[in-house]
Amino acid sequence: MKPEAMSTTSPPGSGVPQKPGRTILALALPALGALIAEPLFLLADTAIIGHLGINELAGAGLGATVLQTAVGLMVFLAYSTTPAVARAVGAGQLGRAMAAGRDGIWLALGLGLALAVAGWFSAPALAGSLGADGVVAGFAVDYIRYSTPGIPAMLLVLAATGVLRGLQDTRTPLFVAGAGFGANIILNFTLVYVAGMSVAGAALGTSIAQWGMAVVYLWLLVPRIRKAGAGLLPNAAGVLSTGQVGSWLMLRTLSLRIAVLATVWLATAQGTLTLAAHQLVFTIFTFLAFALDALAIAAQALIGKELGAGDKVLARRLTGIMCRWGLVFGVATGVLLAVAAPFAGALFTSDPAVRAAAAVGLWVLAASQPLCGLVFVLDGVLIGAGDARYLALAGLVNLMVYGPLIWWVGSAEHPGTSAILWLWLAFGFGYMGARAATLLWRVRNDGWMRLGA
Question: What family does this belong to (predicted)?
Fold first, then answer.
């Protein structure tokens, strides 16, 4: 990669803001709050369920993996809408921007309803496919089924958030996500402990909270769509276009989820202790990933807007700044996690064996954070540029690297906490290292930059 000089001043008439760092922070800081709020839903579930017992925690972990996979595959609803709206805004076409957002919202509703129905009926098969049986499988099925009513709302939230990010507004998602998280904790605690619904109560509480967020987003966006003259009814061509662009991003996300599922499958094969410890480590990984992704969100919005406006110089300079910030942020979160690793498990479980195993995984995760920071920023840059096809194909290459590595880890016997150690070495450095290599290869020149709306 050959970034331009990163001085905070630019020649007159260059079109480059004097302090681009402030522009990045204006988007990234509110996005950070909103992104942290999303995994806090899962953290709240894990903390509340973890004190019920190891079987409940393991079952909820499997159920959450299924839910995250289904919803995660639909993240293109935000990732395709953000650059589409941002490019149109950069080109001065607000009506086109709002029409793209409207079509994304309709697509989200349709896909969400289909996934909710499929998830309810296929819950036992999905839990079994991850190796769950007995009481653990029962809790996994409960978590999946009581989460399905909230899936349409989750996808509506994704699409609506993408519209606002494309409009360079990351503050509104922060406020909505924060309110949703607060409601989620109250609902989950009440349904789990007061109503005695156990794992099912945590899933149902999250579903209710997600619907509240979706309603707020619609209340905010519908008037803006009307004001822009875009109309409220979907445009078939627009919905199809969003789906076509999203298909490459879905393939990119599918490769990520396959890597995650393969890791969960291996953790399950190593026993309940390793699975429970992996759930704790992966929960914190998700939390930190969303935090690191704040810069990626800024990249999506800013790179999309500047390429839409035809400013390749500023897009390159912003990319270089955000890459360095990603590395620094990764170092900072890694240091904090390394210090907290011996104590973090106590927040989720009282089982000393699970806490000891989780600490080992958290130390590995801490060491990999700088690498993760770079990966998330570059991923956001290429999403903002609309380079979805490359991201999808690179994801397949990454799986070709990770597959043999995780097979090698699973084929050996690992006593004690060494199973979680090798599991997270493979994921944190093997898989994330492959992602970093393919992303750096792409941004080594300007071939990924496509100008115009």
Answer: Belongs to the multi antimicrobial extrusion (MATE) (TC 2.A.66.1) family.
Identity (one letter) of the amino acid at 263?
T
Helices (H) and strands (E) in the chain, counts: 17, 0
Question: Cα 441 vs. chain centroid, distance in angstroms?
Answer: 23
In this prediction, residue 146 carries a pLDDT of 92
241 is written with which tokens? 């276009």
- Distance in Å from the first CA to the final CA of the chain: 25
Confidence of residue 1 (pLDDT cuts 50, 70, 90): very low
- Could you read off the pLDDT of 362-371 as tens digits, one per residue? 888 989 999 9
Closest by CA position to 52, among listed 173, 134, 139: 139
Confidence band for 452, pLDDT divided at 50, 70 and 90: low
pTM equals 0.73
Three-state DSSP at 174 gives helix
Contact status, residue 96 vs residue 225, Cβ threshold 8 Å: no
Query: What's the CA gap between 253 and 395, in Å, rounded?
Result: 8
> How far is 153 from 207, CA to CA, in rounded Å?
8
Let me know if 1 is exposed, middle or buried by CB neighbors in 10 A (0-12, 13-18, 19+): middle
Alpha carbon 13 to chain centroid, angstroms: 38
Query: Would you list the DSSP string of 407-438?
Result: HHHHHS---TTHHHHHHHHIIIIIIHHHHHHH
